[in-house]
């Protein structure tokens, strides 16, 4: 899923890679992919768990994974969402802020 959006710097000369990086800044660099490999694998594992436990659901509601602006490229973030929701029933991502909003009464 990530392959069409990769920069593939290893297959180019340095000058050509820099030119492509400047003209297409949304491409995922090899360095970024390696840096976030663990997080990418986590999204794949989450997809496997959703398939195992929610494959017969009519709708899956899930908190949208947060991405820090400027830290992760938009292409990699969208690839994570694509991996997370691949081959699943309809999934609704809800943006949260990772704080509990449940109210408990005593």
Automatic annotation (TrEMBL):
Q: Does the keyword Chloroplast apply?
A: no
Q: How does it sit in the membrane?
A: Multi-pass membrane protein
Q: Does the keyword Transmembrane apply?
A: yes
Please state the protein's primary subcellular location: membrane
Q: Sorted alphabetically, which Pfam families does this protein's record hold? A: SLC12
Q: Where in the cell is it found?
A: Membrane
Record InterPro entries: SLC12_C, SLC12A_fam
Give residue ranges for domain SLC12A transporter C-terminal. Answer: 1-106
Q: What keyword terms does UniProt attach to this protein?
A: Membrane, Transmembrane, Transmembrane helix
Record protein name field? SLC12A transporter C-terminal domain-containing protein
